Amino acid sequence: MEMISIEKELRENSYPGRGIIIGKSADGTKAVTAYFIMGRSVNSRNRIFVEEGDGIRTQAFDPALLTDPSLVIYAPVRVLGNKTIVTNGDQTDTIYEGMDSQMTFEQSLRSREFEPDGPNYTPRISGIMHIENGSYNYAMSILKSNNGSPDSCNRYTFAYENPAAGEGHFIHTYRCDGNPLPSFEGEPKLIGIPDDMEAFTDMLWSSLNEENKVSLFVRYIDIATGTYETKIVNKNQ
Which CATH number covers residue 48? Predict the structure, then answer.
């Protein structure tokens, strides 16, 4: 698979929706993840990321403008021991509870499907990072409607063992803007992952569409020690 420029990819797509990046830093010492949200409606744009324990959750910036919390308020990131879970919805909790009961990532998601927001039927995208004894692997999942039909759920899981330094994968909910919004297609996209978290965060945030971007989370986890650094950027301040 050809590596693409994540900067170019984001700049040329006004509405990828919500996106997950997972990979390994160029020096091979950090497990890296990023998650961003975008919005077209007042309800979607009225959000910020806040830290909660080892993870984060979405929160209404102005509670008075919150009309429907069901698909916009959730914990995108939770940590279960040596596993970090990143998703675009409340399936974070489903994965956390399933894996805490000895289920696999894929098994945990069997009880879920795409979001019930017809006609878009937004895909549920999820990622899991596993760091243990200096080793690191990750997996990504997408649950999507069958070409826009809610009658079938198509399930895809992509697993990456011992990922190469400086490489990562990017998956997002929508192929591009539209009405209805077309779902992501194909495998997660191969991208480069730098060592500099500040520069990576700045590049991602500046590349997202100015009108539609809402919040960005970036985390670099030391593979040897499990310690991490986190950056959160919110358009609403």
Answer: 3.60.20.20
